[in-house]
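MODEL INPUT / OUTPUT PAIR
PAIR INDEX: 1
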Amino acid sequence: MRIRALALALVAAATPAPAQEVPEWVQKTTISGLMFGDVYAVVAHHDPDVEDQNGMWFRRIYLTVDHKQSSKFSARLRLESVSPGSFDTTDRLLLPFVKDAYLKWKYTGEHSAIIGVSSTPTWNLIEPFWGYRHVEKTPLDMARFAGSRELGLAFKGKFGDGGKFGYHAMLANGGDTNPGKRILGSLSMAPTEGVILEAYADYDNRADDTDIWTLQGFVGYAADWGRLGGQIARQALERGGAPDLKLDIVSGFAIIALKNDMDLVLRIDQAFDPNPRGDRIQYIPMSPDADALFFLAGLDFEVTKFFSIVPNIEVVTYSDPVAGVETPDSDVYLRGTFFWKF
């Protein structure tokens, strides 16, 4: 009897306990994230206080929670941490803040309404097509023409044969204390395989005759060998009775697939007007007193599908300075950009 009882006890101990059922809300929730930054050296710069600086920083860290309540309703909460991106501070604290917080209602077919803090139409299509946000922002983002997120109500969708046409419209606060509002919208079209076209406009209704208008056009082409993209943009800023300020940018990029999971990354941006926000551009401050020509070249090494290293160089040259100012010296940045996601 003792032997039989011992055998039964051993069998019971070896039998796995019934698996606990995973709660439904957990099954409908996913957590993801990404991180990227640089090891950098400023080889030359128009600002002597920036020249010869070097170091390492995280530029972005994202932690994202997505919840799919049903086939029609989903929600996202994303926290972002950033370093100051300034060369005049030693502060490297990565303080988190809310990047996305929205509820999405897919009310019919490919059409959705989004309420909360969500991405704007400004570069919502262009940024993923560029595909190298971890190396550099898209041109309008880098030039501080607008922000990547707004609090408001948005509508997105596709229509036409095979979803050939797309739209993204948004009514946003444009700033918590702004008495006016910001209206943004884009229309896109994929006329043939691999080709994408987009037209974009926004209007920011501000106080004291300081309204802002932005227009943008983009064309992209993707194939097995890589992709090409080009865009042109104009922003007009009212200045409270002074003549309007018009800022024009033309940009083009090429991503060329090489062997052994490597990509060649090339981009050039031409700003045809001095950008008054230039010295406030994070990580790559530019002179606000002259037209800027930006050039980027990099080589993407994909170590795994989740981790890549991109050694790159960024160069900014200047021309046509404002009256009374000498042409600023060029800026040269050498960087080893690292990126991983989970």
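PAIR INDEX: 2
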Amino acid sequence: MFKVCTYNINSIKARKDLILSWLEKRNYDIDVLCFQELKVEEKYFPFEDFKKIGYHCYVNAQKRYNGVSICSKIELENIKKEFGEEFFDQQKRLIAGKIKDITIINVYVPHGDIRGEDKYYYKLDWYNIFLKWLNNHFSPDEKIILCGDFNVAREDIDVYDSSLLKDSIGTMTEERESLEEVLKWGFYDTFREKYPDQQIFTWWDYIGGAIWKNEGMRIDYIFVTKPLLEKLVDVEVDLWPRRRRKPTPSDHAPLIATFDINI
């Protein structure tokens, strides 16, 4: 079996000990870890800590903000950190690499802002440029895993209160349409393919004990192209790291997909 995880850790410095404890608890069963929001420069990433437990880490990061990484038990090839595109090279939100014939793409899509603000347009532009990048470099016939924090809840079932959150950041029609265009390119939502009617979340606000009330949103995804959909076994949200009080958790929980693949 081959397990891939996406996890917005909201600072690798703050979350390192929690992540290492969590991986030990799982007996290091995850083959590929895709982290978002590292919030440190590459030189401060704890490469040695992950190396000690069997992971090769590849990082595209910047000081204080954003940052993505792929940590894999198997060394990656064709690592892509620079893209010749201002949206991707100025803010470090994208990294890609290959494991044999499988391409792993890890993204941290901009959070955005209320309609009409600069960050709102930046988010929509990022999606458009990302779609062009996919068209220029890949085919839906290839084996591709696209994962990360997309900062959009696909449907009303993906938020705890669709009336309260209607037309807010992450649920606006324009944002959802942008995400759906990525899926239409040739991706499948692994969790929704396995659990079409189940409501489960990957993010909960720190305020008001939202995790204990399950007042969350599903904004983290593992998308795959059809050749990998056929190998999909299961998808789970592991709530253990999010429900910790100490060390302080991220506001996201890890999402893990299992494939019937021997690497």
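PAIR 2 NOTE: The chain is about 25% helix and 25% strand.
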